[in-house]
Amino acid sequence: MSPASPEVAAAPSPAAVPIATASANTNIALIKYWGKADEELAIPATSSLSLTLGGTRTTTTVSFDGGDGAADSVTINGTCPGETELARVSRFLDLVRARSGVTAPATVTSRASVPLAAGLASSAAGFAALAAAASRAAGMDLDDRALSRLARRGSGSATRSVFGGLVTWHAGHDDASSYAEPVACTMDLAMVVVVLSQKYKPISSTRAMRATMATSPLFPAWVEASGRDLQAALDAVGAGDLKRLGEVVEANALGMHATMIAARPGIVYWLPQTLAALHTIHTMRDEGAPVWATIDAGPNVKVLTEGARAEEVAAALRDRLPGTTVSARYPGGGVRIEEGP
Ligand code: 2P0
């Protein structure tokens, strides 16, 4: 039998299995994304601005090795995800398969470095890492912009996690024009994360933003204000003015929540402790601390502050908000290929 005979050629060699590992940090939006202009392509209704946080990496390995035989096999933090999550990952892998020509089901193993209880649970790091690992394993050589466009199809906020530090996601109007890119920033920024509840089960962002767009009479005003907020935030970053940045960041987050609270039925992510934290932050600010709140699709509060004062702010919040878990987080890097073919 010659070495080129079909039997020999078909024998799988370990090196031939397309496999890659990538990691990405999560990010917190300073100017929020809330609503899609195009659900299928995940084009947002507004552009957004975020800070990628260090030490929050999710590391994901993708191997197009046949999965469990007929379908993709997915393990997240050591367990199999529910059907909805699995379907979402498979739909994303279908996109990668369609573009790359790879046809095999995949084995996906993903692990977050930060526990869900840290209040940073986010699909942003997960889908950014998945996009990088799957595209690399499938032999696609994407630049960062193309990678951010691909990550967008997994989860909107993942678009921004491709990059480190301060990042803007241009809403755009089609697949090519909706991508993220880094924003030059010399400011010393940090986020202090205040976890208020670990039991609370919010409704998913995807469903909540759909309902907000469909039923909230405030949504058009939110879209309009958001454009102005983004420009004001970028101007404040350009001027290195933390107070101006903080004010617009907090106003933008409160506006997003007001818009969804006005949906029918109202979507209220806040708990009583959320309001207590907001009032504490206002009091600290009145006392001179550089602290501004932002809140995502859940009850927890994140506090934008100065990096040099983040530990002091975290200690004060721990003191004033007993029963909460508080951690200081600093800017971190973008997507990283850990191992690739
Ligand atoms: C953001 N959030 O800009 C906003 C603020 C939550 C509140 O992006 O449907 O999980 O997967 O695109 O990205 C959370 O939404 O939603 C989010 P999908 P995603 O960070």
Automatic annotation (TrEMBL):
It holds the Pfam family MVD-like_N. Its EC number is 4.1.1.33. One of its GO terms (cellular component) is cytosol. Residues 24-180 form the Diphosphomevalonate decarboxylase-like N-terminal domain. GO terms for molecular function: ATP binding; diphosphomevalonate decarboxylase activity; kinase activity. Residues 192-326 form the Mvd1 C-terminal domain. Gene3D superfamilies: 3.30.230.10, GHMP kinase, C-terminal domain. GO terms for biological process: isopentenyl diphosphate biosynthetic process, mevalonate pathway. The keyword Nucleotide-binding applies. The keyword Lipid metabolism applies. Keywords: ATP-binding, Kinase, Lipid biosynthesis, Lipid metabolism, Lyase, Nucleotide-binding, Transferase. InterPro entries: GHMP_kinase_C_sf (IPR036554), Mev_decarb (IPR005935), Mev_diP_decarb (IPR029765), MVD-like_N (IPR053859), Mvd1_C (IPR041431), Ribosomal_Su5_D2-typ_SF (IPR020568), Ribsml_uS5_D2-typ_fold_subgr (IPR014721). It comes from the Bacteria. Belongs to the diphosphomevalonate decarboxylase family. This is diphosphomevalonate decarboxylase. It comes from Actinomyces viscosus.
